[in-house]
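[Backbone geometry]
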Amino acid sequence: MNNSAFLAKAALGGLLSATLTVLHLFPVPGLVFFSYFATLPLFLVGLGLGLRSLYVAGFLASAIVLLLQGPFLAGEYLIFSFIGPAFLMNRALLNRTKKSGEVAWYPSSLLLRDMTLAAGCVMLIGVAAYLYFINGSDAGVILKPLLKSFDPQGHLKDAEPMLLKMLPFLPGFFALSWSIMILLNAVLAQGLLVRFNQNLRPSASFSNLSVPNSFLIVFGISFLLSFISVGAIEILGKNGAFVLTFPFLLVGLSLIHSWLHKTAYATAGLTIFYFLILLLFWPLLLVILLGILKPWIEKTFPSN
């Protein structure tokens, strides 16, 4: 494929990403849902054509958003929809050739570590914005304009006390949502590329995921800080612990997949398991606990 073809595909990816980003400008119900897939074209470009094409697509999309929506939203797109995914794709495409000639790609566990660190940066930006907008006032300063925007009729007025308790978790929720959508778009893009034999690297393995032991230490510290009623410290503790539940959740899911695939009923078992997760909430807490306890579980019950 010549350079002009690469450039054309990269430009198309950037145009599609920018288009998905600005869908909320059109007064069509439900159309804004597709904006969650704004990073999908970038992942298709990056994981299918390489980083140079990704940079072309990302900067083009950022310029289009700047022209249509102004510097603030363009900056938001640049950081969360371009730079964040570009960092992860840069890591995903790292590889080395062994003496045997086999290509070793960047491991899944390190990708999970890097994605968690990126989510931590997103959380810190969210915490800074949260504290800036509150500016020493009550959290209702943020909540009331949000409620008025999403519920102009006042139907959620009775839920305001509960929402006030949940509001301090808003930065962590934003970071967690960002992580989930980044992961979803990356997996979807890789699946499409593999389907049409356009992928640069093989799909990352979901089995035997792990995270650094330092994550557990940070999680414990964050959990303790969440009980200290000292403004920014409490907010950082709550949101740090909240964000770190995601990698432990994925590690726990990886462990369950590994166990069930050793049985003759893996498909049925996984179907029932995910049905229970969709139906109930508490299985997620057990999975997170499994992810936290994985090092001790593997030491106590070593696999053959």
